[in-house]
């Protein structure tokens, strides 16, 4: 019997003997010999999505601002998403490093791979990508059941919001990242997907740069129905009220200077469903006021 089993394994293809395997944001096949038990996460959204996938207890290091869930705050840090220590990562002997493509940079991928580390590149650009990332993390960590449950719950929330928003007229929206310089996002950014989900249209969707600086005059000329800002924390940014200097703006006349917590709309995690719920409710009230005029 033993000889028969040994013969069977000797003729099995390599893929049949491999551990979990997924495709990352770059289309690379990422394969592990067995589920990961030592994961380094190089962006706050990655940390959060690993916890959502049920793999939080496998994370051995994070970067600064990895503050959700609360358990992540006590994990060792290897720097920030934009400046982290390669030596510290290597010293941890991880069996998986999860990299943020646009934040950590592609040179980081080459460095890590040269050292023989297995790297998964995360770059959620759409709402669907969030659920897919969580499923991938669950597969790589051996927690697929939890990951599938969380991904389905997120997707169900998004689908419900999409059905609700489909019933009302579209609103023009300016999303303000910052006031000086005046900065926004284009249609390729995930924030625009949330705006669209809520029945809005980003007035700078067609701008080539993903996070362009824009002229005040261009915002005034577009005269959006609503202006949305997140700022840097829970509090509504004071500079959002700078628009009150322009009382003829539709967003000002319609009391549509809106605030959404940045972590709930700018981080590509399941909490974006919570941020979208808040934003959709705010835009619905703007829509109702517009219809009542």
UniProtKB/TrEMBL annotation:
Xref: PROSITE patterns: FE_B12_PBP (PS50983)
GO biological process: cellular response to iron ion
Domain Fe/B12 periplasmic-binding: 38-287
Keyword terms of this UniProt record: Signal
Gene3D superfamilies for this protein: Nitrogenase molybdenum iron protein domain
PANTHER family (alphabetical): MOLYBDATE-BINDING PROTEIN MOLA, VITAMIN B12-BINDING PROTEIN
Name of the protein in question: Cobalamin-binding protein
